[in-house]
Design brief:
G protein-coupled receptor activity; mainly alpha; GPCR_Rhodpsn_7TM; 230 residues; 0% strand; Rhopdopsin 7-helix transmembrane proteins; TAAR; 82% helix
């Protein structure tokens, strides 16, 4: 109750969690773009170095925190409501946040689907060109395993991210436009927020664990080894 009646504590509590999620979505978009450039235009990818990656990550976190700090510096309806509810944040701010998150999710999903389409096409061409050699050295089992692994990775990064965010967005719209008890609103919102937190934390881990290229980039950053797009 103390936090609910204190303006700056309410807004700061909202900012700390939501800004990190927005920043993580921008980081995931950067990873998708980096992989897209690597596959579609390897020659241009040679110009991408650690400085570009660091700059993207820094800008992602700055934008995420700056946007969600705007209510803290005046873009709010606290004088009208005087208590920490979703209505304290202006309609324009909420709509802007929802549109921004949806655009990032759609862009991320489209890039990963396009990468999957390219990878699938390249896999078919390779199979048709070196089918006999591949059968001798790898066998059908390993080829099928690689295809399944590529599909599972794309599904986990793109579709699971969307599925984790949609319940929270629906709940936020529901509590805004329908009347219900304050406690019920808080509980429902926090429960729908759990999948978002889990997705934001595990998506980079999944990407790094299943992607050899990303592991190579991390090694090059830690041990100062030249990074190659393989």
């Amino acid at each position: 109750e103390y936090v609910l009646t204190k303006k700056h504590l309410c807004l700061l509590n909202f900012t700390v969690f939501r800004s990190g999620i927005l920043a993580s979505l921008f980081v995931l978009l950067g990873l998708a773009l980096e992989r897209l450039i690597c596959i579609v235009n390897p020659w241009k990818y040679r110009k991408v170095n650690s400085c570009h990656v660091i700059a993207w990550n820094v800008c992602s976190f700055l934008f995420g925190y700056i946007y969600f700090l705007l209510p803290f510096f005046g873009w709010n309806n606290w004088d009208k409501y005087g208590v920490c509810t979703i209505h304290v944040f202006t309609d324009s701010f909420r709509i802007g946040a929802e549109v921004l998150v949806l655009c990032l999710l759609v862009a991320n999903s489209c890039i990963h689907l396009y990468l999957f389409y390219i990878a699938r096409g390249q896999s078919k061409r390779i199979d048709s060109l070196i089918k006999s050699v591949q059968l001798q050295h790898t066998g059908n089992g390993k080829r099928g395993y690689r295809k399944r692994k590529a599909f599972v990775t794309v599904f986990m990064l793109a579709f699971m991210s969307t599925l984790c965010w949609l319940p929270h967005l629906f709940v936020v719209c529901f509590v805004i436009y329908f009347k219900m008890g304050f406690i019920f609103k808080q509980v429902l919102t926090e429960i729908s927020y759990v999948p978002v937190l889990l997705n934001s934390g595990f998506s980079p881990v999944i990407f790094g664990y299943r992607n050899r290229h990303f592991r190579s980039a991390i090694k090059s950053l830690l041990w100062r080894v030249k990074h190659e797009c393989v």
